[in-house]
Amino acid sequence: MRALHAALDHPDFAALNRVEAQMADPEAALLAHPERYVEAIRKAIPAEGLTRIDPDTVASPGSWEAAMRALGAALQAVDSVVAGEAQNAFAAIRPPGHHAETAKAMGFCLFNTIAVAARHARQAHGLERVAIVDWDVHHGNGTQEIFWSDPSVLYASTHQMPLFPGTGEASETGAGNIVNAPLSPGDGTAEFKEAFTDRILPAIRAFQPELILISAGFDAHHRDPLAEINLQSEDFSWATGALMETADRTAQGRIVALLEGGYDLQGLGQSAAAHIRQLMAA
Ligand SMILES: [Zn+2]
To answer: What is the model's pTM?
Structure first.
């Protein structure tokens, strides 16, 4: 978060409307998770020290507030974009969410924030079709699992394979609402743009979403230590621009992006800045 805020401390972002997120009511998590799971996570949060919820997923005493604030940011962002108060929004949140399945925390994720945001857009605002685009370098197994048989939400992802969590083959298509465009280790700008142009963007255009959500992880950056995809920060502004153009056609330009992964602080800061600079050009 500090790297992100440092990158946004630049004259380019003087006009950015920054809003402090409220914590969500824990009931919001029920849009994507059963109550017993939400309670189990709440009980697992330690009063002091650290608890390992899954081999990768460590909780500290601050994790509940962070997770609820992440949900709050996502809901608030959806509310203001759907209400037309903002054309688009980026939620700078931790922890990430796209690996969290219906009843399983994994990969640093406790609750699937973007799934909750999509369901909230459907239930609170009556939207019929919401698209989730996930360009994090890891496949969003949790988001795919949650919407596997829910054709009101399109889930379209580019990610490295093979890599954690192991899902995301092109053959995984759910109810026809899942579009996986896996990339190979060593792939870069050309392959990423091809996946977008040939697979992701046509699927979104055909789906005609009323809102586009982005699982905006920046760990496909070439500096990132967790994967072997070689994107430049400008590639994220290109993808953002392409999604903005698509959103203009069917979704009144409405985009809400939620931060997912990003483990090289320089790559994260530069990539998020490029993404947000493009969003601000709306
Ligand atoms: Zn990731």
So the answer is: 0.99
- Cβ-proximal residues to 15 (8 Å cutoff; 6+ apart), any chain: 280
Per annotation, catalytic residue among 99, 120, 159, 275: 99
* Helices 63-82 and 35-44: angle between axes, nearest 10 degrees: 140
- CB 165, CB 140: distance < 8 Å: no
Q: Is 10 a catalytic residue?
A: no
41-93: per-residue pLDDT in tens?
A: 999 999 999 999 999 999 999 999 999 999 999 999 999 999 999 999 999 99
- Give the C-alpha distances (Å, rounded to integers) separating 112 from 75, 120, 202: 12, 12, 26
User: Is 179 in contact with 155 (CB distance < 8 Å)?
Assistant: yes
Q: What is the pLDDT of residues 226-255, one digit of tens each?
A: 999 999 999 999 999 999 999 999 999 999
Residue 190 per-residue DSSP state: H
| Distance from the alpha carbon of residue 11 to the mean position of ligand 1, in angstroms | 29
Helices (H), 83-153: 113-125, 141-147
- How is residue 262 written in tokens? 């990003």
Neighbours of ion ligand 1 (CB under 5 A): 136, 138, 217, 219, 261
**Distance from the alpha carbon of residue 138 to the mean position of ligand 1, in angstroms:** 4
Distance 107 CA to ligand 1 centre (A): 8
Measured in Å, residue 218 CA sits from the centre of ligand 1 at: 7
CA 4 to ligand 1 center in whole angstroms: 16
